[in-house]
Amino acid sequence: MSASLNSQPVAYRSDQLPPTHARPVVITGAGIHTSMGGGWAENAEGFRAGRMAFREVDLFDVSRQRVGTAGQALMPDKPVISTLSKKQWDRMDRGTRMALTAAREALEQAGVSGALPIMVGTSAGAMPIGEAYYNQAVEGLSKRGQFFRVESYQPQRQMMAMASALGIHGPIRIISNACASGANAIGQAFQMVREGKAERVLAGGYDALSQLVFAGFDSLQALSPSGIPRPFDAARDGLAIGEGAGFVVVESLESAAARGAKPLAQIMAYAAATDIHHLTQPHPEGDAALITMSVATKMAGIEPGEIDYINSHGTGTPLNDIAEGRAIQRLAGADVSKIKVSSTKSAIGHLLGGAGSVESVICLMTLEGQWLPPSLNVREADEFCTFDLLRETRETTVNTVLTNSFGFGGANATLIFRKEVGA
Amino acid sequence: MSRITISGTGAVSPAGWGVAALMEMLRDGVKAECSTVERETSDGRAITSRVARVPALTDKGLLPKSPRLRRTSPIGKFAAAAAFEALGPVRLAAAQAGETRVAVICSLMNGCVNYSNRFFGEVLKDPAFASPILFPETVYNAPSSHLSAILGSMAPNDTLVGDAAEIFTALELATEWLLRGDCDLCVVVAPEEVDWLSAEAMGLRSREITPSEGAGAVVLERDGDGPVLLVIPDPVTYSEVPNRVEALKKLRAEFSEDDGATLLADGRMGIERIDAVENEVFADWKGPRISTKTLLGEALGASASLQLVAAVEMLKVGDAEKALVISLGGNEQAAGCLLGACWGGRGALNRGGRF
Fold it and tell me: Considering the entire predicted model, what is its pTM?
């Protein structure tokens, strides 16, 4: 079944304000591409098995970096869509190819195409193409190909190409709130559908490895020298960079029901806040994270103790994990020991602009499969981990899950999903 | 019914720091002064580009004192100066005292190119010595982060990336936040900075383009004083239509205004080949028309924000009853908005206006 109608434009008109009542919003399709694998099945199998997916970086020179490994994904060298020519595929940057792969899976599962708004989160866009432009400009030898590079390093150009390849079209909103971007994209799509501005939205995030960003995190000494991130370990020493994409189709329950689509989950809540403590460091008590989790649980109409699982931002840096841990403690109070927490960045690294959306898809997997992924590589949990830190995969009842995403600049976002779908 | 009003404007442009300098340049019809940026290729050749830069800041009072702005590149300073001019000192103080929740939306096309350029240069030289101070300032959302930090506001803060017409999506998002009650005020700012990388990139499109920089900012609120935001239609993405003429025609059809009293703030820059689409689609426009880029140059994402600021200022003094602001982006969309005269009767139509 294919639905192609977006019943309302997302526009603002002062004489036609959106309805004030909120309506239920569900996810009817999801797609994912990471270093763990291509697609839902490979990723679900890998996370459930507690696998790690880091490898040597061979996309650019890392010989002078402190770290040489990352969650580098495997990518096919030919188009993943039959209607896409090899030339069109070659013109897409690595990140867009991952986005295309994940978005296609989400759209196919949902059974939608045609007109719908597109919400995308990315931090680096098509940075490798920008790097290639810079390299050739500095050499000063030729302008050959430079106009193409100038155009193509821009994420909106790439997302336009992706949309065309997928047979969808509509307004594109690209959110670049660093590492919260993907969660913001899903959250804003949720709000748009909830408030009746759209029936359905394709939303997600992506980022690919790039030399500038890899070197940037290394310059900040934020990367784990061993290349093995250990979120929530007492001796954690940094993150690992990863790459990938996660996309979902966000849709009104009414629309999904009308076309017979089976929801994967209901989106119960989204909240965003800004941590103004420092450009790159969170408030030590996790103030903004506490705000987003508190607002989200209130919006979802649940008590913190009812959350079955928190997929944490959990980067593995000393400052992030303690701030998030403190926020979880403050949120849950006496119930903190009931809250099950893990970081899937321990398996695939930090996907930056793609992290929030990929981790949202992982949350959907836990709801579908009734298992929870572990935080890998924890030797001794830090003393602030008074919550139930998952160190091994757990088969359990999972109905309500929360995911956190925090970014450079202080962008904080929380999403809550529920397996049971209802008004 | 609640109205979204534009209750403050701010600008940094080649005309100078502040809205007054911008409006004076537009009134006088004087083109921005140009200078050159020069750089050397690895084989020793010098390459120069003509640019219209923002003049050096002489009045330090135009920028709030903050450690966040000490190391930021020009784009961060442009954003801050425009945003805080738009807010004004009273609302800034109220925000800093926690009395007003101020959200921030920054819309960009090119972003923090100066520091990205410098940092990547250091990486290529030797990544082991690349500066950790530069890297965080290369991130798209660094300028908006600084604004929230200086405001002391934990309200939502988003950075949107798109082509030169992106600010209209930012305005649309601001209306969502205001109508939902996520904030009391929302600052929408679109800053850009120029350096050799972006200047040469624009030259690949046309050597006639004058690369420029700056920032335009507006403060939106519910039922405030100032011009009313009437319509922001969906942007027309280029994938929906056969060509840009059709994109702009489709956008124009969303607005019925062509009554001779509506101002058109367009995106023409005085280069026939580039302006052809707007010339064709609005050939029959009866009302007054301004083309700020013909004087200020091409400042990418900032250009449409300066068009918007100019239109708001003209509505405030009664130079028009309504204003249509449009932008034909480079590779994504045609977009625009329609503004109405000041809410509450202030700034009533002044037939003897300044333009």
Answer: 0.96
